[in-house]
Amino acid sequence: MTDQAAPSGVVHLIDRQPQMTGTELLTGLVPPPQFDGATFDSYRSDPAFPSQEEAKQQLMAFATGAQPIKRGGLFRRAPKVPESKPGVYLDGGFGVGKTHLLASIYHAMPARRKYFGSFIEYTALVGALGYRNTVDLLRGSDLLCIDEFELDDPGDTMVMTRLLGELVGGGTKLAATSNTPPNALGEGRFAAQDFLREIHAMSDSFETIRIDGVDFRQRALDGHALALSADEYAAQLGALSAGHRVSDDAFDDIVKHLAQVHPSRYIRLIAGVEALGIRDVRQLTDQSEALRFVAFVDRAYDAQIPILATGRPLDEVFSEEMLGGGYRKKYLRAISRLNALSHAERPTTV
Fold first, then answer.
1. How many CB atoms lie within 10 A of CB 28?
2. Across-strand partners of 228?
């Protein structure tokens, strides 16, 4: 694999062949760097959407184990407080702060053993270690946070259902957000009942908490993702590479390379890179390529790596047909993130 210790210069993602052991995958189950300091106090709820503040209050109680106190009179029995469920599911559109709140739960819960990962990271752990070994490793953990619970692959969904069922039986608490897959779920909205039906064995373990709102990434952005001319790209990449490590690859080469690397390793693919250079962006027409690119964008966004790109604006990388299909929400979320990363502040040049 390409040397990732070099302090600066240009690297090519297509030269990297990242490998990760099961132990490394387990160690990496922590919130993304941008959420290292995420707290409930730093979550800024939008007054226009009261459900955001309501969700925050509910999740604070979940994280700390607090229960509403209801006292009876001197000779009256206090009303029975409903038993809390072992899991919470954050139901809402993209860009409303679900991951921030999920990370806040992780940081606030006084747990000895707790893990935070995307759905794909947990399924990759099962793939690397085997189902039984994964259960043995995670058994006894106090909290499992699952970001972007996927329903695209029924097999992976049911593996996770079975895994979570075993862990909940051992006392593990769960907190999850989700990407919405197919049709008829409505723009920016996940159908909680569909989620509960898919994980029917776990339906009684989750309390669904709805979070409404507008994608925060679009509040401060106007127009398209930033597309550079070839000369602008060369100048910016050259200036950045003088003091930082940046990547430089053709879009088609990246797309082909992603097919050779398991999505669980995409985070290692971009490790140490401070800016991503992507030349000659075109519109994707193959669904498998598009979904792999979405997973790549998610990891780049988690790491908050700015993108420099030429060719078609990155917010136009998915075809209209794709945007009208079953993975609509995934593509819209990726567009939102690509737009933000293309406008993100570049590393300070030397």
1. 17
2. 310
**Burial (CB count within 10 angstroms: exposed 0-12, middle 13-18, buried 19+), residue 158:** middle
**Which helix (H) or strand (E) is 285 found in, with range?**
none
Give pLDDT tens digits for 301-341: 989 999 999 999 999 999 999 988 878 878 888 998 999 99
Q: What is the pLDDT of residue 252?
A: 98
The one-character DSSP state at 200 is G
* Euclidean distance between CA atoms 165 and 153, whole angstroms: 18
Q: Which residues, listed in sequence order, are joined to residue 116 by a DSSP beta bridge? A: 145
Single out the residue of 275, 278, 264 nearest to residue 303, CA to CA: 275
Cα angle 205, 208, 214 (rounded to 5 degrees) comes to: 150
CA–CA gap between residue 206 and residue 315 (Å, rounded): 35
* Weakly modelled stretches of the chain, pLDDT under 70: 1-7, 66-83, 94, 151-154, 179-204, 215-223, 349-350
The residues that bridge with 282 in the sheet, in sequence order, are: none
Model pLDDT for residues 164-189, shown as the tens digit of each residue: 889 998 999 999 987 543 233 333 33
Distance CA 21, CA 164 (A): 22
**Cα torsion through 63, 172, 102, 133, rounded to 10:** 150
DSSP H/E element including 148 = strand 143-149
309 and 236 Cβ atoms separated by less than 8 Å: no
Q: Among the residues of 48-191, which ranges form H helices?
A: 50-64, 98-108, 119-129, 131-138, 154-169
Query: Which residue is listed with tokens 């009876």?
Result: 72
User: How far is 317 from 306, CA to CA, in rounded Å?
Assistant: 17
Model confidence, pTM:
0.76
Say what percent of the chain tops pLDDT 90.
49
The count of C-alpha atoms lying within 13 angstroms of the C-alpha of 44, restricted to the half-sphere facing its C-beta, is 4
Residue with tokens 């992976």: 156
